[in-house]
Every structure is written in structure tokens, then in C-alpha cells.
Amino acid sequence: MTISIKIQPNTYIDSVSLMALSTKANQIAGVDQAIIAMATEMNKEVMKNVGLFTDEIAQAQTSDLVIALDAKEEQDSQELIKQIETLMTEKKAKTANQPTEQYTTIETAKKNIPEANLAVISVNGQYAAREARKALNNDLHVMMFSDNVSVEEEIELKDLAHEKGLLMMGPDCGTAIINNVGLCFANKVRKGSIGVVGASGTGSQEISVRIHEFGEGISQLIGTGGRDLSEAVGGKMMLDAIDALEADQETKVIVLISKPPAKAVEEKILTRVRKAEKPVVIWFIGSETRENEEGIFFEKMSKAAALRAVTLAGIDQNKLDVHPLNLPLIDEVREKLNSEQQYIRGLFTGGTLCDEAMFTAKERFSDVYSNIATNQEHLLYFGDPSKAHTFIDFGADEFTNGKPHPMIDPSNRIARFKEEAADPTVGVILMDFVLGYGAHPDPVGAMLPAMKEAKEHATANGRHLEIIGYVLGTDLDKQNIDEQVEKLTSIGATYASSSQNAGLLAREFVVKGAEQ
Asked: Residue 487 belongs to what H/E stretch?
């Protein structure tokens, strides 16, 4: 290992930009591993864990920028650092050429742009609450992309926002669409009459994409952050967001999305929506089945929730292609898989998409394991090998420490894919490919060589490997969805038309004999 370090004192770059820079740095020929990060204690710990820590980094201040590099033996590490600095210079040049003025504090920005009404916070969690408080006190709604913010700080910020009549989206809020503008990870969808409140990033993206596909659009998509419906936080942001959508004249239907909330919080949410004057669709992933009530519609799966929302908004379902499951394909794949190939391996960049597929499998199988399982008996820890039916969320904290999100950098998933594809007990590998703002410019293309090689290797060894790919995106996203789908099908992968269909296909492909 050849470690080289470059420290730039008093140089701040936000975390979203650092994720993108780190991804590009790791793609430079000759780089084994690179981390570009602020010298916070958390980031120093990450560098220790991956073997890129030195005494020089130990002495760096939190305001310093660190470039830590492990180069291949034959490479000139200093030349590689120069290439990384060139990437950073190019970013600065693009920023400098932007027509808008750049401001270094929230107060200055608000003073010079008095009409501004929203701040996106993307700084280290150590400072995120402080900056969010400044934004709220300057009468700005807040979307906090940052995580590692304490529950106590989250409650304080949401209480402050409530008092001031503002939205406090987050912490760890990955997506929103406000006045038809996508924030952080978001898909390009048409404006319409359906408002979404989501405690789940990719779940909200999936609903927005399906609504767009079915001919309607989004009035507002308000993220809450993943902890909002916990017992401690009490659904503060979801309740305020419901109030906001009730008051919004453009919103005709409201959709609520979350992983299973705390029971007391779920009842609090239901008490509020029972008073709503607009119809409400609820998709609480994995929650117990409930009967519909007047004006309240409970759905178990994502496509069903989107379909319910658009029909409530006035779309005629009889005129829609709802993409029913391809039953002949299910029979065909079952015949191709041998008796040893019993298991699904789901490898996801989106946590909610992983959850939906996992809960779909659990309806049929008892041996379902995941790194996001709530049952300790079925929980896999970082580094654990897969067993039986396994579903991995590569966006979980243990996979993103020191690395960009897998929607940006797929390297962790590619490595795991190769392991799963070589397992003779695996019949189906299920993956999502997320398009839109902030996502990889060619997510299918990045996986394509590994997928092609895996299928060829399986064939050479006398077995069929079924790969299911779901592309989460619209015809308006900058990545061309038709090209992404064509790349998938070009190597014999099965394209699923929705997250819901992807999970159902994977499950049904491996059901055999008496289990059918």
C-alpha cells in the first residue's frame, strides 16, 4: 500500500460535492482507493477503518480538507493527487462561471436574496443543526440532507419550525420536490394534483415516478427524514406536511409513505387524516393490513398506492397500462432454474425498494435475511455472508462510511454482485437502478460488464442465472431511461416495470413444486 496525503487548510466543500468528487477520484486509473473529506473526527475514524490514516491527518483541523490516496505500486501517487486537484479545480471553475452570486453564510444569502424561502443543508452532521437553526430563524424552510444529527436536535428544530410555520425536512432527508423543483435525489416528473409526504427517500421517488407514468403529477413532495415517525419524534414533520398539503389549493389527493411507524405515532397520524377534507392514500411498508375508511385508503405495495392516488385524482384506470405480471415468463424462468437454485439475492441502492422486495418475499418465505431487518434473528451485519433469501441495502450507514452513496458509486454493490452470482444456490439476483438528479449518469452501464460476465459464467457451468433489473426513472430524467432498459435486456436480464413487479417476479421465479 502506498499512501499519499494532501491537506488543504481552511478549505470547505459540502458533503454532496465531496461524494461526487470522491467517486470521480476513485475512477482515475492507478487509484486503489481515495477519500476526499473534511477532517472531522468521524471522517478521521473512517480513514482509520480503511487504512488511509496518518499522523498528518490526525493533526488536521475540522476546517481542513483532506485528500487521502492509496495508489497502485507502479503509479506516481503525486501525479494522481494532481489529477484529483484538477477535478476540484474544474468544479470551482464551473461554480465561478455560474451567473448567481456565491455566499458563505445563510444570513448573508438571505440578506442579498430576500425572496429566498428554502435552505438545503448539506454539511457534516456536527454542524448541521446549527446551520438549520440559522435558516429557520431567517424564516427559511429547511431540507436537511445531512445525517448524524441527534434525536434531541431533530425534535428541537422541528418544534422551532412548527412555531414559525415552516417545514423542517430531515435530518437525513434524501428527496423532495418543491414547486416542481427536485432537491437532492429526485426524479423529473410533471406537475400535478397529488401531494406526497414521505419518511422514505426512494419510496417517495418510486411513488412520484409511477404517478408520472400513469398520467398525473406531483403538486409537492415533502420529505420528513427517516426518524420522523419514531416514538421519540412523534411524526412532527408528517403532521405539519399534511396541514400544508391540506391548505394547498393545487393538491387534490395526499399520499403518505413510511416504513412501519411506531404504533402510537401511526394512530396520531390516522387521527389527523380522519379530519382531512382531501382523500389520503397510505403506504406504510410492511405494516399490518388495515381496512379502508371513508376518505382513507391503505395500500400494501407501491404501484397499488400510486394507482389509487391517480384514480382518486380523476384518471380512468381502464385506460391505463398497469403492467400486470408476465405469467408465462414466470413459468419459463421456473423451468430454467435447477433444483439447487432456491434463493433470491436482492442488491439495492434504495432502502425502501429493498424493504418492499424483502416484505414481498417474507409473505411466502420464512428464511429472509437483511441488513435492514427489524427482527434480530434475521439481521445481517456488515461483512456477513448472505444466507437463504438475502436483501442488502447498500445505502445503509455501514456501506457509506467513507464512500459515496451507491446511487453515485456502485463499487460496493458490484463486488457483492460477483460473490452472489457465483453461488450455485442463487436463482435470482434483483437490483434497482435509480435515475434522476444526483444519481449516477449511467447506472446500468456501470454494472453491465459484471452482469454479462456472470451470466456467461453461469451458462458455462450449466445453470441459468436470472437477473432482474428495475430502472426507477421517467422519460424526463437526464439519463435516458430507454437506453438504460435496452442495456439491461441486451445481456438477457429481465426488466421489471416497477418496484412492486420486481419483488413479485423475484419471489415467483423461485417458488417451485408444492410451494406454488
From this structure: helix 481-490
Q: Are residues 262 and 274 in the same domain?
A: yes
User: What is the identity of the amino acid at 452?
Assistant: K
* CA distances in angstroms from 96 to 50, 86, 90, listed in the order given: 34, 15, 10
User: What range does the domain containing 386 cover?
Assistant: 327-515
Give the pTM. 0.85
pLDDT of residue 93: 59
| CATH (domain of 121) | 3.40.50.720
- Residue written as grid cell 492507478: 30
In the three-class reduction of DSSP (H, G, I as helix; E, B as strand; rest coil), residue 458 is classed as: helix
Residue 57 has a CB neighbour count (10 Å cut-off) of 21
- In a shared domain, residues 159 and 253: no
Q: 190 and 307: one domain?
A: yes
If one counts every other C-beta atom within 10 angstroms of the C-beta of residue 516, the result is 8
- β-pair partners for 119: 142
Same domain, 69 and 105: no
Q: What is the pLDDT of residues 28-64, one digit of tens each?
A: 888 888 889 888 887 787 788 778 899 999 999 988 9
Q: What residues does 186 pair with on adjacent strands?
A: 437
Q: DSSP label at 194?
A: E
Q: What three-state secondary structure class fits 213?
A: helix
Length of the chain: 516
Residue 435 contacts residue 484 (beta carbons within 8 Å): yes
